[in-house]
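To the team - adenosine-5'-triphosphate complex, inputs and output below.
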Amino acid sequence: MLSLNNVSVDLAGNQILRNITATFDSGLTIGIVGRNGAGKTTLLRAMMGLIKVRSGDIRFDDANLTALAGHARAALHIGYAPENRVIFPTLSVEQNLRLPCEVQNMSAGAIKARLECVLQAIPQLAPMLDRSGSALSGGQGKMVALGRAVMIGTRLLLLDEPFQGLAPRLGAEYTEALNRLKQLEPELSIVITESNIKLLGDIPNQIWNIERGEMSLYANQRITENAANDY
Ligand SMILES: Nc1ncnc2c1ncn2[C@@H]1O[C@H](COP(=O)(O)OP(=O)(O)OP(=O)(O)O)[C@@H](O)[C@H]1O
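Output:
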């Protein structure tokens, strides 16, 4: 279970997240929807320990994430695919995928097994493995960023606006990859943000709104055309 208890975050003297309290049950895919600037990235970065929480705490099962350094959170098998993908251009795609596991000192055997599992979920990565990280299209970069997060994120995946800028065909491939992943790993929890609720389709089990740093459960969990038009 992932829980946020009265989480507030300030950036440059402004309050960006305001007393966020939310509980996400294990094994669910949670959608967090909000306009540009609502605080989605800040929330995921706070979960990853990349931003200091001013007050409140974030707990993942028995661990108090707020008390742990960022690298210690990755050791809890939390994977993060940032909005801006951050694929290392001097490394090959395979090296990019392996990197978070190597940082965690996983054995060569465990990394190989994990890579095979990731390729099962995201087979599009297989023909790209030898390619340079600098030679990827935007859509391919999103797939690699997903794969890299999945390499280490066996318990929790945080995906920041993955569908932004993806052509519809690639968006459908991304959705299929998430579906395969959930079949392979039903216990995996996923948090996925978007500014456009329509882009999430049927992926989330539960949807939350974020608006000016405040979060609330999306009132109508059945996504209607009218509700989708709000974004
Ligand atoms: N480093 C920073 N310093 C000061 N303010 C920041 C910083 N990063 C983000 N902000 C502000 O925090 C607010 C939330 O930004 P955030 O990136 O979390 O929103 P978002 O919902 O992810 O939006 P987007 O869809 O545009 O990525 C915005 O008003 C933004 O200007």
